[in-house]
Amino acid sequence: MKISFLRLADPAFLPEKFRDAVVAIGNFDGVHRGHQTVLQCALDEAKKRGKPAIVLTFEPHPRTFLKPESPVDRLTGAAEKAEIFRWAGFDAVIEQVFTNELASCKMNVFIKKILLGTLAVNSVVTGENFHFGYQRQGNSAFLQQAGQKLGFGVHVVDRLRDASGTVISSSRIRALLRKGLVKEAAGLLGYRYTVTAQVIRGSALGCTLGFPTANMSLPPQTSLRLGIYAVRFRSSIGKVYNGVANFGFRPTINKTPEPLLETYIFDMYQNLYDEKCSVSFFSFIRREKKFDGLDLLMARMYKDEAEARMTLAFARPLSLLDDYLTSDSRHDPDEADLFV
C-alpha cells in the first residue's frame, strides 16, 4: 500500500521522478479479476525493472462522453478505483480527461504525444481487448508493433476466463447485478460489489418503526435488481457494520419517485447525514414487495434482519482486496499476492 500516492487529471503535471514508468492503461471499470491480472502484471514489471508503477485511465468513461444520453453504469467511481490502485501499490493514477480532442486523436499521435512525449513510458501493460485512438482504430497488436519500432516495452495480458471458459467482463457483471446475483458478480469482481454515495435525509419513518436507515440515492443507470440484501456498511471514517438494505421504491408506505438504497445498520446509533459511505452486497434475500399494512411489513423486516445476520456471521473474505473493502482490518497487503 502506498502512503504517498498521486491522483492527477493531466499527465503534464506528473512529477519528473514518475516519468520512465511502467504504465497500465485501460478504463478498469469495476477493477474486476480480469483487470487485476493486468494491474498485477504492471506491478510485477515495475518491480523487476526498478521503475515507478502508474495507471492511465480516462474520465469520464469514453462511452458516457460519446453517448451522454446513455451513460455507462460505473461499477466503480473514479475515487473508488484510485483507492484500489493506491492499496495495490501503484505510485499514481492519471485520470486523463476524455475530450473531443482525445476522441479524435489518431493512434500514432496518442502514442507519440502522450505515451512517449508527456509520460516518457518505459513500458506499457494492457489487456488484449484494449483499443485507443480515433474510432478505436488502435489495438494491442498495433501498440506492440509501435513499441518494437519506437523502443518501449509492451506487455499484452490475455483476457481472463472463469471456470466455465467465459471471459470476465464489466458488462457481464452488470448483467448479473440486474438479476440480483450479487454472489456471482462477486466471484467475477474478486470482491463484493460495493457502491459509495452520500447519506441523505429521508422521512425518518424507519426510526418510528424501530429500523432507522442510512439512505443513499444511486445514479439512475445503476444495474442492481430492486430488493432486499445482506450488506456491510462502511462509514466515512472506515468503521464497518453489518446490515440489511432495501434498494427500491418503498411500495408499502410513502412510495418514492426514484429508487433509494436504505440500509438498516445493526448495532450502530450515530448521525451519518452528509457523510460519504459505502455499502457492500453479500447476498440477495428477496424481491421488493408491497405489503397489506405495517404489521406484515415489520414481521417480514424482522425475518430479513435475521437472515442477513446469519449470512454475514459466516461470511469470509474472497480475497485480500475484499477483506480491505469489507472489514475493519485494512492491513497492508503482501506485494507478492495482491489480488489472490
CATH H level, superfamily name of the largest domain? Riboflavin kinase-like
| Rg (CA only) | 22 Å
- Which fold does the CATH topology of the largest domain refer to? Elongation Factor Tu (Ef-tu), domain 3
Count of β-strands = 14
Strand content: 15-25%
How many angstroms does the end-to-end distance come to? Answer: 15 Å
The tally of structural domains comes to 2
Strand order of the largest sheet: 1-4-3-2-5-8
Fraction of residues in helix? 25-40%
| Shape category | elongated
The CATH class of the largest domain turns out to be Mainly Beta
What is the succession of H and E elements? EEHEHHEHHEEEHEHHEHEEEEEHH
What would you call the structural class?
alpha/beta
Main sheet makeup: 6 strands, parallel
- Stretches where pLDDT falls below 50 for ≥5 residues? none
Arithmetic mean of pLDDT? 92
Structural notes for this entry:
- The protein has 2 domains: 6-159, Rossmann fold; 180-336, Beta Barrel (Elongation Factor Tu (Ef-tu), domain 3).
- α7 (170-178) packs antiparallel against α8 (182-189).
- The protein has 11 helices and 14 strands.
- With 340 residues, the chain is an alpha/beta fold.
- It is 32% helix and 23% strand.
- The protein has helices spanning 33-49, 62-66, 78-88, 100-103, 107-118, 140-150, 170-178, 182-189, 205-209, 294-313, 320-326; strands at 6-8, 22-25, 53-59, 92-97, 123-127, 131-132, 138-139, 153-157, 194-200, 213-216, 227-234, 240-248, 260-265, 276-286.
- It is elongated.
- β6 and β7 form a beta hairpin.
- The strands form 3 sheets. The chain has a 6-stranded parallel beta sheet, with helices on both faces. A 6-stranded antiparallel barrel has the order 9-10-13-12-11-14.
- The longest helix has 20 residues, at 294-313.
